[in-house]
Amino acid sequence: MLFSFRELTLNFHVSVWQVPRKYSSMVSNFRLSILLCFSLAPFTLLAQNKDTKEVEIRAGVDSQSKNSNFAKNPTGFQKEIDLSQTNTRYMSLPDVLNREAGVRIRQYGGLGSYSTLSLRGTNPNQSKIYWNGVPINNSMGGEINLADLPFDNLEKIEIYKSGTPAGFSGSAIGGSINLISKSKIDKPITRINLMGGSFKTAKATVTHMDQFAHGSYFVQALQETSDQNFSYLNNKGTVLFNTYDDTIDTRRNAQFRKTGFTGNLSLEFGKTKINILNDYIHRKQGLPGPGNRQTVSVERVFSKLSSAITTETNEFLFQNLTLETKTYGNFSKDDFFDPKSEFSYGTPNAFTKTNHYGFQLSPTLYLLEYNQVIRTSFQTEQEFFTRYEKRYNHETERKEPKKRRDTLSATFQDEIRFFSNRLFLVPQVRFERFTDRFGKDETSVRNQLLDPLTDVFYVKQAFTNPSFGIKIIWIKKDSLEFGTLGNISKDFRIPTFLELFGERGSIVGNTKLRPEQSRNGDFGFYLNTKPFTNWKFQSDISIFQKRIYDMILFLPNSQFTLRPENVDQAFIRGLETSHNMIWNKGIKFNFNYTYQDAKNYSESPSLNGKYLPLRSKSQGSALLAFFKDFGEIGLEYQYIGANFRDRTNEYLGYLPARQFWNLYIQYIPYKNLETGNELILGLEVRNLSDKRVEDLVGYPLPGRSYYFTGSYRF
């Protein structure tokens, strides 16, 4: 979405040149504490009784869950979110992710609005998002609009905070998210969901899944609509100088219409599993703009098709080798309409097309007699980006030169186990090579004079990402597992097309940009236990730090244009903790909290020591729910600390702390235990206290809203 990316870039990029000396001592103490803990590990492990039973290689999740992706990253802090219970509630992808520790969602409005993801205080374009292991970040702007992603057809969400595991392509400074679609099932199911609520919101989904001789299939159709015409306080842009002109207005041009279809097929032939995945989304939405400058006719039409074929073959060629492959394609079209030039001038409309292809080969060698698992992954990708500038009547004015990115990557990981699978050492290295091509703009007089013989500009970059992780299981019993996790890594972010090649009339490209790079580290403890019958506890606590160099900032190049430069650095440190408790007789409780100190240490006196924009020092969430066979009632709480919009921390860009309360009730009037048929009715009240707040300065969020749900399974 190019029309909003410029604003996002100015909001999210921060400037730092050096980390002060006082933090170097903190880093030394951080490393010393890790070394002392690890030096005591062999003595503690030897003191435990030897257990020859195979120990599941997993961190931060229930040891009974089977997650093959987590096994590829045994030392990382990671979280699996089961979405089986969200099918009968009116929820979205930002709603689910925003409750997790270390995850921050920024929304430009209510349901269906532009939303971005930030992990551990990093920029949205520094995190990777995958769909069934397929990368979906685009090379134009780098960040992803969560509203454009699937949700209702997902089985679970995987969050990786310690980097990108083996088998996933690309380096990630912030971390990564993997969206897992529903594919394999245990028994035939058909479910119809009808939902509706405030602001003329309605959603309907029809889902069917069944089995056959050598596999199963899953299909789903979705239709969703909402006007999002909620009331809000319009300060007319005079926050301090004049409050007498403030009015209560109604949000306009914030409507959206969404259609989706999913068709997944799972096959199994001998020792080979094949998944054929297809997901299509079509969205038509208005773009309302800031609350004090609402638009009337700005619209966007977006469609995307994601397809993938994945295979997994056990005992490939010989017994100890497993081979996985992915072949995929992402195809998207984005139409932007601004007939009255409310967002832009000149040629206000635009049409963009992105095609992304890739293939991945991932063999895994199990050398269990040598206590090792060797994982490798090889990947090649191509991405093509084409943009057309259009007049107010949507006739083509000019076709921009096509942009292309070729990527080659290779990952090597060696998982080494000691002391009967109590100690894990995991060194890993990832090699990446990028080749970018950008055709010359033949309408530019400057390009014709400076490069009369050059038709295509090339930018080639390559770098290496090493990492090392360690896991120690201090206590391992049938009902208790307690351990330590630690990771260090070096990661990069390749510049985007917008940064390298610019945008006509507003951004001057810089092909000499260096990749952003970071030094990451985290360390903490996890506990999984079942102390009593029907009770289960999961807890983890970790500290983390990130030192990010060569961050790209858009600087004024003239009165009307910006130029990206490698002038920024950032230092982020923090603590996060997560606790889950379930009593199978009817109680569940979740608590998540994140504290982070993200500051700017630039050579500029006006920026040195300032907080990075849009980073709250504290953020937390909690859930308390009571459930029985006939239903469930739950109370949710979310707190987001104060933050600043701008890099200079001006008062006009100050966002005060805000908190929200949500209540949901589900009633099951009919349920057949033998067939699984059931009828579920639900009521959800969001923002119980009717807080009129903003997630970003100028973009209001809805007040109190109500949603009703009905779900029938047969």
UniProtKB/TrEMBL annotation:
<keyword id="KW-0675">Receptor</keyword>
<keyword id="KW-0472">Membrane</keyword>
<keyword id="KW-0998">Cell outer membrane</keyword>
<keyword id="KW-0812">Transmembrane</keyword>
<dbReference type="Pfam" id="PF07715">
    <property type="entry name" value="Plug"/>
</dbReference>
<keyword id="KW-0732">Signal</keyword>
<dbReference type="GO" id="GO:0009279">
    <property type="term" value="C:cell outer membrane"/>
</dbReference>
<dbReference type="GO" id="GO:0044718">
    <property type="term" value="P:siderophore transmembrane transport"/>
</dbReference>
<dbReference type="InterPro" id="IPR012910">
    <property type="entry name" value="Plug_dom"/>
</dbReference>
<keyword id="KW-1134">Transmembrane beta strand</keyword>
<protein>
    <submittedName>
        <fullName>Iron complex outermembrane receptor protein</fullName>
    </submittedName>
</protein>
<dbReference type="GO" id="GO:0015344">
    <property type="term" value="F:siderophore uptake transmembrane transporter activity"/>
</dbReference>
<feature type="signal peptide">
    <location>
        <begin position="1"/>
        <end position="47"/>
    </location>
</feature>
<dbReference type="InterPro" id="IPR037066">
    <property type="entry name" value="Plug_dom_sf"/>
</dbReference>
<feature type="domain" description="TonB-dependent receptor plug">
    <location>
        <begin position="90"/>
        <end position="175"/>
    </location>
</feature>
<dbReference type="InterPro" id="IPR039426">
    <property type="entry name" value="TonB-dep_rcpt-like"/>
</dbReference>
<comment type="similarity">
    <text>Belongs to the TonB-dependent receptor family.</text>
</comment>
<dbReference type="InterPro" id="IPR036942">
    <property type="entry name" value="Beta-barrel_TonB_sf"/>
</dbReference>
<keyword id="KW-0813">Transport</keyword>
